[in-house]
Amino acid sequence: MDTFVQQLINGLTVGAIYALIALGYTMVYGILRLINFAHGDIYMVGAFIGYFMAFPLGFATGPSLLGLSVVLIGSMIAAALVGMAIERFAYRPIRKYARMTTLITAIGVSLLIENLFVVWFGAAPRAFPQLLREQSYTLFGNAAISKSQILIFAVSVALMLLLQWVIFKTKVGTAMRAVSFNLNSAKLMGINTDFIISFTFALGSALAAAAGVLTAQYNPQIDPLMGIITGLKAFVAAVLGGIGNVPGAVLGGLLIGIAETFVVGYGQNVGIPTTFRDAVAFAILILVLLFRPTGLLGSTVQEKV
Amino acid sequence: MPIFVKRLLAALVIVLLLIAMNQYMSEAGLFGFGVPPYYARVIMLAGINIILAVSLNLITGFTGQFSIGHAGFMAVGAYSSAYLTVFYAQAWERSLAGVVGATLAHALIFLLAILVGAIVAALAGLIVGIPSLRLRGDYLAIVTLGFAEIIRIVILNIDKVGGATGFTVPAYTNFLWVGAFAVITIVVVYNIVHSDVGRALVSIREDELAAEAMGINTTRYKVLAFVISSALAGMAGVLFGHYTSFLSTNDFQFIRSFEIIIMIVLGGMGSLTGSVLGAVVITIMPELLRRLPGDFSRYRLVVYSALLILIMLTRPQGLLGTREFGLSWLKRARRRSEGDKPAGSGGVPIAEQGPPSAIDSEERA
Amino acid sequence: MKRILLSLGLIASLLFAFACERKGGPGAGGNSGPIVVGYYGDLTGRTSNFGQSTKNGVEMAADEINKAGGINGRQITILSEDDEGRPEKAATVVTKLIDQDRVIALLGEVASGNTLAAAPKAQAAKVPMISPSSTNPAVTQVGDYISRVCFIDPFQGDVMAKFAANTLKAKKAAIMLDFNSPYSRGLTEFFEASFKKLGGEIVDKQSYTQGDRDYKGQLTAIRSKNPDVIYVPGYYGEVGVIAKQAKQLDIKAPMLGGDGWDSTQLWDLGGDALNGDYISNHYSVDDPSPAIQKFVTDYKARYGNVPDALAALGYDAMKVLADAIKRAGTTEEPQLKDAIAATKNFAGVTGTISLDKDRNAVKPAVVLKLQDHKYTYVETIYPEGMTPPAAVPATSPAAAAPASPAAATKKPAASPAAAKVSP
Q1: Which candidate, B331, B214, B359, places its Cα nearest to that of B273?
Q2: What is the pLDDT of residues B296-344, one digit of tens each?
Q3: What does the DSSP assignment read for C146-163?
Q4: The complex's ipTM?
Q5: How far apart are CA C227 and CA C249, in angstroms?
Q6: Which residues of chain C neighbour A144 with C-beta distances below 8 Å?
Q7: For residues A39 and A247, what is the distance between their CA atoms, to the nearest angstrom?
Q8: Spatial separation of the C-alpha atoms in residues C307 and C300, rounded to whole Å
Q9: Number of residue pairs across B and C with CB atoms under 8 Å?
Q10: Total-model pTM
């Protein structure tokens, strides 16, 4: 039983990270119908910004709550700016062109960020400074939860609630929903769509950066290519939940995190070798899409001619 | 001159050209002139990439179905045929050589391997094609990507084919094979595109609902396009595996699928010659960038990705758009010789068709 | 029409630039002029930290040789090419180095998969290749022009199994391997076989892949099986964090690893969680021997960090090659190949290297204990047939064949800092 609870906690931790990143994918997709392949790299950039912020500000020497909040918020702001810049210079000029073109541009941006970071900082993993005094709390029996896991849960829930509030209770959120409903009509209604798109990128990037800094507390290993696999899985999570759907992204992220962990923990008992873990996210996705072609929470759009 | 004689002559010329090129590319060279091995290798890889790009163009460029899992089909073809050539074919080849001679036996066995690779890949394409009945656009894209990753992980788990270390396979491929199959691929896809099937595919790309309303069995055509395309990709995989004579799952990661998409988008979706151009450019560019001077060569891949973005920003419809390069000349020749076909029905279905944003016709309107 | 011409022009210029660069190549065999050596490795991909480290080691060795007057008066030039960690590209760049740059020998790759893809090119062109750190046995079986200066998987897997069973008296072992890495899978295979033969039991086998963020799922599963030791034959980037997360789950069993652990980054990532773990390695940075200390100091001065095992192996590969060129007196390939194969008792940083008849390095492994940000020497394990240098330094390469993965455990009489082992 305690092993089960432990695996559940582990799965939720991974899932929360996937969910935070998936939110960015889903929001951008909802508005632009663009798979922003560079989003996983924003998560990496966020972690690196946090890393390079912690040292000069003197937070790297020891754990402090102040340091953690400054680094977290700082990297979120910086990553938001990076996201906006990418949108402005790479995506906006070709927004009116075919979807494939923007997709290739997104892949190009992703490769560019990765390769630049490899050249600048090398691919060797770096150790992110511990800003949180690591400690484990025993729940019962053998099941334990560490401080960084609590942090991940707390911050991601807070950020998701904040996002929900922004989308549904603020003016800019209303505009976001309008744009995602129909970009051209929104424009006709006097909404500054360029600003809204920019804002969406900023929001998504900030969440990804938060995920980057949070994972770095949990797993201090950061490297320029860390966003590839995590980003891909988060993207799968977004599609699983129904791309364009905000609660769907969270649900998808948590589901994939838990599924992966459970395959590792219990897969052997039901005949799935644990080495198939990386395939699990995709297998679930394919199965779900076969029965619900627009994801778990995605709405079925009636096509019209 | 009757048309079939002309075609026969053209085929003969191509075959002779290929044989001459093959000799020219080989170690011995043609009349003492040879291509240096490094260039020969890049040309071979470009040839294989042409097959991949042209085949992907059939699904993505002409049918409008978003597939980012081409590396998976390639891997299926490569590994299944390698399994055959490594574990069985040598014995077969020996016994066959006694009957038809060594050279022919060698060729026949490899032809069999290519066939097997293509069929297995086609089966994989069928399995992926079935979900495509229900999925649209980006959902299909991620499913194809997922399939490719699953295939890679499954292969990683099979120790018989080398697992993570890699699989050493006999080298069969030479330029003759690659050249011949590149030509065959282009001809096959060209003929499909310029047939009734091709028009059905393009109509699916332009507007699936309207196509369905016009009585086109969209499901059937989409699956057909998938199966043909993956069979061709599997073939490219066979040629690749038996050229590099080493297979590793690291060569079939999703970055390769991306590269193939980049080739067709760069060349211009819906343009066969564009795919060929894109494949050549994308194969050669990273190699060319090795010549960046001194310490700047560290920036090779940075420059590569920056160039990619730049090309997309300046030529969003790809280098050739939906135009075909060089075909106008052929068309004119054909029209002169036949003189009966009305323009537009046979030769030019995709060329002058509307805005470059063909794929985008959905939500944007 | 204009755009067609434009794109035509583009492609023509691409082809032109590609074709007209054809030079005679600076190197070519012979006995005069600079010696051009090719290095290929992953310099931009997922494993580029390994490729870069190795490159650093190779370049440092070449510079040292050049400063000391070169080999027989000839200077060494290292040409490096990036293969992005992809086997296809590895074969391409090796073809380029041989064909365009006319290198007389090749150094590389780290990953066995990439070496296996590239080695046939070198073999076919008859250009000697020394792999600094490809541990898969199949690598040197490609042909007689391919050799290596590192352990092979059977030996290193065996060393740790012996250490776990004999020294630590472990009965139950769990394995956590990097599933995508041939190195990790190779070590696992031989550790498992050897450990079982010694009466142990493998209670669980879990896997991860490079780039994973979380290992707690696997570790929780391992924890429920209560192993005495956990074998983690991975690379430092991951194992540091694995150790840390294991401690968070209150796993007390010591972890065992291989030379992939060796890096200063390991301590930044794992910290105190690594205390009490053991690794097998080629050498110890703390080894007081002057040659090793000089290497470590020079490397630090040049690159700003302590060398890892890959840098040391790259360094040794270059030195072994230089030694062979000196002995052959020529860079003509067949003689050079024979000279490399005849390497015997070469005093490298990573141990005394002799090549056996399969051109694999035969050298002892050291077991190090990890404690308080330091590697402490525990014991040396010699391959079968090789005796401690104190007794008889020379062994015939044929006798030292480690084709059988068995190894003989011996404690040297005067070990520098023999720590007491208590499991």
Answers
A1: B331
A2: 778 888 988 998 888 888 888 887 777 776 655 555 555 555 544 444 3
A3: EEESS--HHHHHHHHHHI
A4: 0.88
A5: 14
A6: 248-250
A7: 18
A8: 7
A9: 115
A10: 0.86
